[in-house]
Design a protein that fits this description.
The complex is a heterotrimer of chains A (151), B (130) and C (89). Chain A is 73% helix and 0% strand. Chain A has 6 helices and no strands. The longest helix of chain A is centred in the last third of the chain and has 33 residues. Chain B is mostly helical and 130 residues long. The relative contact order of chain B is 0.11. Chain C has a domain of 59 residues. In chain C, 73% of the residues lie in helices and 0% in strands. In chain C, helix 3 packs across helix 4 and helix 4 crosses helix 5. Classes of the chains: A mainly alpha (151), B mainly alpha (130), C mainly alpha (89). Chains in contact: A-B, A-C, B-C. Chains B and C meet through helix 1 and helix 3 of B and helix 1, helix 3, helix 4 and helix 5 of C.
Amino acid sequence: MINRFENIIIQTISRLLIPPIQLYALYVIAHGHYSPGGGFQGGCILGASFILMVIAYDIKETKRMISEKINTIFISLGVIIYSGIGAVCLILGADYLDYGILNKIFSVSPAKARALGTFGVEIGVGITVMAVMVSIFLNLVSGGEHEEAQE
Amino acid sequence: MDFIISKFNYWIYIVLMMIGFYAMISKSNLVKKLVGMNIFQTAIILFFISIGSKKGATIPIIQDSHVDAVNSALYMNPLPHVLMLTAIVVMVSTFGVAVALLIMIYRKYKTLEEDEILQILRNEKWPNTH
Amino acid sequence: MKFFALIAVIVTGLLLIYGTMDMPDWGATDSPPNTHVSPRYIEKSIEETATPNVVTSLLADYRGYDTLGETTVIFTAGIVCILLLRRYR
């Protein structure tokens, strides 16, 4: 149970910092082909931005940004994107998760199609990791009540 | 001396792993057991990462992408990195589920000490026993 | 009780240290994990997947099933946390 406290310095700094953190998380996910990064790391950074919001403000303020319903949908959406890309490959006539066949849709070489399939999979992984981090943190820190402890 | 330099990384991880193992089997507080399990997993992750290292090699990101034949001696072994990347996320998941279970245990028994929980369980009247 | 735990830990640690005598040296380029399949991944990654970061192509392409199961693991962990703890009023 966390108690609500208000500190103008912490709130201002975190309000300034949260958008660059989220932008950096999207960069880490999207640039994972050329630099260290990928779905897991970017998803963790994206979840950490919401966790910073919970710490600096409170749970109610955070749930205005990302409500519980949306968050629970995101948990499933990542897995659906991942297995959906695999199923698309299956429908187009290749093996499950064999992205080379995606060149029938995107009209690029099979190697580039594999890079595109990898990118889609990373997006799915990132969404799931972000939503699970936020969900686990909110449930653990408030004991499942999703509201602050009253003094 | 050469022998010590070539093997001391394994010894460090074994010491770390044994610290976690001792916490898992000797502490009676469930949270301390959980922390011991995390130290154990960290030791295993460091062990796998050190297996994949090569002398004179860099991280497995191919820098000159126009070269046809890539020299594999210049890049580290990417396979342990991938396996441990998934292991880290599984570690976070197990930690979250374990802490959730600990919260449920605390709500029911009002304690996290193992022997006290066993004492409560022994004194409980089971409804279905004859 | 703690004494026996300490004895067990020390014996296990000594056995593991004895086991490291046969492990490859630190940074050895000809050790078994560095010679079998990983050179193939490094050499063919650009050609087959157009991805310079070998870890990413290995994670999502060569071993896609592994990552799919692992995503399912964290999905299950999130759902279990919600089911165990969340209390609606």
